[in-house]
Design goal:
alpha/beta, globular, Alkaline Phosphatase, subunit A, 2 domains, five-stranded antiparallel sheet, eight-stranded mixed sheet, 635 residues
Length: 635
């Protein structure tokens, strides 16, 4: 037994390799610009635990088999380090298990990828040197065979297990609900890896290996296999969809550039409202009067919020309940709006002043059809601005020179940041006269200041586009991704008979601008699903795939909104009839059927046909994403 604790005992080799494993994980994080780690103690504990679980069993093998085991484990570790390092260096994000089905495409970029290797990456091979030295030392009798009996091996195996439990327990129990996390382990892995704004957080917290393992296990538990009945439902829905008719707006903006501006947390309730005698959003108000303004327009986001809004407007597919398509289905084949326009000769660009991995955009954007993406690394954050991030004013100002390099016609998507929760704006930018004794919470006051600032930044950007001629040459679409989720509409006292009070947060504005378009307000219900077909219609481009949305300038107007987690349908809106159900269980019989716009009660059966049609549509959308069927929906 004394040999176990001897300084030349073999037990110290797996311990040394486990420490090296922690160091390698940290060096990987530094190479990915994740060196400022707020989860350092968790990171060290869980990566060391995994290192022991990987290398520790080698001490249980006899003679030279332990070196065979160590060589195999080391080879797998190096392979994952190198593959993730190269993938991140080339794509700007972390490789997901779902991307492995496209491994055959690596050959086309291999010459470029391997130029990214640097001498520093040799650290990911260092374990082989340590093992090689240990091999020769043992051969010369300098290292003792640690275990001789079954009891010693059993004791060490228990120690390995306890170290693993302790390391992972730091993460599982560190923030409470530890037993729940263990008993729902697959869900825990998905929450750790999927329900974060950026995979960076998961890698910082648990290391690239635990991130990769969690992603792979999450993929295994995710049921993506469709039954023949599932496919039949999708095809039945497709056959029932009426082919879109071209209306008088078709091609009004043909050949124009497309500028899409997604404004963070812009809720319709703040438009045309005043605080202290001053308009909250004077520029949005003016733009709404200058073009097409859809004031009965809704967001249909799930847990992904901003990412879900992007997903819906670009694909005309519903967001997924209880998961995020940008994360879990990033490598599907989509017939997205950028891809459609790219096929029509457009160049496609995305501009967002956050890291490329935020909401996994670096993984999903290429498949959506974006040719070039500008991220945080392409902008300069000035220290004297007072903002901790690139504010909207700087974002738009620094984007203008980039736009001069765009090849026309182009599609450019801008995503703002300043009005993102927690809505913090430096004092010098708080220009809205919000009374100190106003009946607003502190968060609501911050929101009003932030959306007022974003409004100013957008106004300056539009003025710059008019000055350089891009305004006249472009179709511009501005919309809110989702509401502010802080009850601002209730505090402002803004409401309208066109919507249910429960949907105020989902009611966001859509403004479409072009010199060929009239100045008009549309009160018919619409949603993010309808963005794609509407824009395609105005550009004179016919979608090649069957879409779930309808052209807002056409005749069919129907909006379906469901619970972000339970899949229950909460509301269906049309111009003449509506169904709403905000009960906990979401059963159809618990809802109401109403005649619109007066919301006069109707017999519940009057809405059943509409409800069943929309239930089939939402289920079909989920199945299309889940089964990667978008390519099978060609018209």
């Amino acid at each position: 037994m004394k040999n176990i604790f001897s300084r030349n005992s073999f037990i110290f080799l797996p311990l040394l390799l486990a420490v090296l494993f922690v160091v390698q994980n940290e060096i990987f994080n530094v190479s990915a610009n994740l060196h400022e780690n707020p989860y350092l103690y968790q990171f060290i504990g869980i990566t060391f635990a995994l290192g022991i679980l990987l290398y520790g069993p080698s001490a249980l093998f006899s003679r030279w088999w332990k070196y065979v085991y160590l060589a195999i484990v080391s080879l797998l570790i190096s392979a994952l380090f190198f593959s993730q390092y190269l993938y991140f260096s080339y794509f700007g994000g972390f490789m997901q298990a779902s991307a492995l089905k496209y491994a055959d495409q690596v050959g086309s970029v291999s010459s470029t990828i391997f130029t990214l290797l640097t001498p520093a990456t040799l650290i990911f091979l260092l374990q082989f040197l340590v093992i090689l030295i240990a091999f020769f030392l043992e051969k010369k009798g300098k290292i003792l065979e640690t275990f001789h009996g079954a009891k010693e091996k059993t004791l060490f195996a228990v120690c390995i297990f306890l170290i693993g439990i302790f390391g992972y327990g730091i993460v599982l129990f560190g923030e409470g609900d530890g037993w729940k996390k263990i008993t729902h382990f697959s869900q825990t892995l998905r929450e750790m890896n999927s329900f974060v704004y950026s995979p960076n957080h998961a890698v910082q917290r648990t290391g690239i290996f635990n991130y990769s393992a969690g992603d792979a296990i999450g993929l295994f538990f995710r049921n993506t296999k469709l039954t023949p009945e599932d496919i039949a439902l999708v095809l039945e829905w497709k056959d029932a969809v009426q082919k879109p008719d071209q209306n008088s707006f078709f091609g009004r903006a043909a050949g124009k550039n497309l500028i899409i501006i997604q404004v963070e947390s812009l809720e319709n309730s703040v438009l045309f409202q005043k605080i202290g005698g001053e308009e909250i959003t004077p520029n949005f108000n003016k733009l709404a009067k200058d073009g097409l303004y859809f004031d009965n327009y809704y967001t249909q986001v799930g847990p992904g919020n901003t990412a879900d809004a992007e997903f819906v407007i670009l694909n005309s597919l519903y967001s997924l309940p209880n998961t995020v398509a940008f994360v879990d289905f990033a490598h599907n084949k989509y017939n997205a709006l950028p891809s459609l326009l790219e096929q029509s000769g457009y160049h496609t660009y995305s501009l967002h002043a956050d890291v490329s991995t935020f909401w996994n955009r670096s993984n999903i954007y290429p498949g959506l059809g974006y040719e070039k993406t500008y991220t945080k690394e392409d902008y300069v954050i000035r220290n004297n601005s007072g903002f901790e991030y690139l504010n909207d004013g700087e974002f738009f100002t620094q984007s203008l020179p980039k736009m001069e390099t765009f090849s026309s016609p182009y599609m450019a998507t801008f995503i703002t940041l300043s009005s993102h929760t927690p809505f913090i704006v430096p004092e010098k930018y708080k220009t809205l006269p919000v009374p100190a004794d106003a009946n607003f919470t502190e968060t609501q006051k911050n929101y009003l200041h932030s959306i007022h600032y974003s409004d100013m930044a957008l106004g300056n950007f539009i003025a710059a586009l008019k000055a350089n001629g891009e305004y006249e040459n472009s179709l511009i679409a501005i919309y809110g991704d989702h509401g502010n989720l802080g009850g601002i509409s209730e505090s402002l006292g803004t409401s309208t008979s066109k919507i249910f009070p429960e949907l105020r947060t989902s009611n966001v504005p859509l403004i479409i601008l072009n010199s060929s378009l009239p100045q008009k307000i549309y009160h018919a219900p619409g949603s993010h699903l309808d963005f794609y077909p509407t824009i395609a219609n105005l550009l004179g481009v016919s979608p090649t795939s069957t879409l779930f949305g309808h052209d807002l300038l056409g005749k069919n107007h129907r909006v379906t909104i469901r619970n972000a987690y339970s899949r229950a349908t909460t509301a269906i809106l049309t111009e003449t009839i509506a169904y709403k159900n905000f009960t906990e269980n979401g059963a159809y019989e618990g809802g109401q059927c109403l005649k619109m716009p007066m919301q006069t009660p109707l017999p519940l059966d009057d809405c059943r046909k509409m409800y069943n049609e929309e239930l089939k549509a939402t289920n079909a959308s989920d199945l299309i994403i889940k089964g990667n069927l978008a390519s099978r929906l060609i018209l």
